[in-house]
Design brief:
alpha+beta; 17% helix
C-alpha cells in the first residue's frame, strides 16, 4: 500500500464488546509512543436511547455500529502491524484485511467529522435530511446556529409542521432543476 501524508478515516473490526477497550489501548499507544501527529482521532459512534426497565425510563448510550472502531490516521505499515496486534482487534475493514479508507461521503454520513467550512444553505431554503431518523424528509430552514453547527428545520409530519434541530452535516440544500 502506498504511503499517503494526509490523514484518512479507517475502520477497525473488534470482538463484540471490546470497542471501548480497543479505544483505550489505542489512546495509550498514542501517549506511550508519541503518535499524536500520526493518529489524530478515535471514535465509537454512539446514540442516546431511552430504555424502559421495570417501569422506569432511563437514558442509555448505545453503539450505533457494534464491533467497529473508527480511527483517523496517517497510514504506514508499522502502524498497521501495531494496531492489528492490539487485544480485541480482528483486523481492518477492507479487502483481504488490507485497510481501505472511508470516502468523504461516508465520513459525512456517519457523522465522524461534523464541522463544515462552507454552508450552502440559508434561512428559508428548501433542504433534504440526509441522515438520522428523519432521513429523506424535506423541510425548510427556519434558523441557523453557526457556533454549534445546528439548523432548525421546519418539516411536515402527520399533517403538522414541526421544528427539528439538526446538525449541518445532516441536511443538504435542494437545488431546483428547471
Amino acid at each position: 500500500m502506498e504511503e499517503n501524508n494526509s490523514a484518512r478515516w479507517y475502520v477497525i473490526h473488534t470482538f463484540s464488546g471490546y470497542e471501548q477497550m480497543v479505544k483505550s489501548s489505542l489512546e495509550k499507544l498514542i501517549e506511550n509512543n508519541n503518535l499524536s501527529e500520526t493518529i489524530l482521532d478515535i471514535k465509537i459512534p454512539m446514540e442516546q436511547t431511552i430504555e424502559e426497565k421495570n417501569g422506569k425510563k432511563k437514558v442509555v448510550q448505545r453503539k450505533l455500529i457494534p464491533s467497529y472502531v473508527f480511527i483517523k490516521m496517517i497510514y504506514n505499515n508499522n502502524l498497521w502491524h501495531v494496531i492489528t496486534n492490539i487485544k480485541g482487534v480482528t483486523g481492518f475493514v477492507g479487502p483481504l484485511g488490507r485497510l481501505l479508507p472511508l470516502t468523504d461521503d461516508e465520513v459525512k454520513r456517519m457523522g465522524l467529522e461534523s464541522k463544515l467550512e462552507n454552508v450552502d444553505f440559508a434561512v428559508g431554503d428548501n433542504v433534504k435530511i440526509i441522515s438520522g431518523p428523519l432521513e429523506s424528509v424535506l423541510g425548510i430552514v427556519s434558523s441557523l446556529n453557526f457556533a454549534n453547527q445546528k439548523a432548525n428545520v421546519k418539516v411536515t409530519m402527520f399533517g403538522r409542521e414541526t421544528n427539528v434541530e439538526l446538525d449541518f452535516v445532516q441536511i443538504e440544500k435542494i437545488v431546483d432543476k428547471f
